[in-house]
Amino acid sequence: LWSRSTLEGGRQENKVISGAVRCTACAPFPLERPEAPLLTIGPGSPLSPGKPRKPGGPSFPGRPAGPGSPLRPGRPCSPGGPGGPGCPRSPIGPVSPVGP
Question: Region Disordered: what ranges (predicted)?
């Protein structure tokens, strides 16, 4: 009853039992034609092979260690008040650790 174009594109070549030419793709409800054959499920798409791994980029060398921060000299001590001795100089600050 149904020509092959019914399954493939719904063209207007297929003839219904009454003889009227109808476009199956335009019918609003498929319930009107219980005699239409069920579409068979097609085979699953083939498994696509996995993509090859991209090679790793070049490993970047570590940054060179930065120089330690310069030594800050201690602040000069404020002069002693009247009658008192001057305070000792504050100690010199430590060198900051070398960067990684």
Answer: 34-100
- Is 12 part of any domain? yes
How buried is 59 (Cβ within 10 angstroms: 0-12 exposed, 13-18 middle, 19+ buried)? exposed
Question: How many independent structural domains does the chain possess?
Answer: 1
Supply the DSSP symbol for 19. Answer: S
Which residues span the domain enclosing 20?
Answer: 1-30
Flag whether 19 is in a domain: yes
For residue 22, pLDDT over 60 is answered with no
Enter the tokens of residue 32.
């009107």
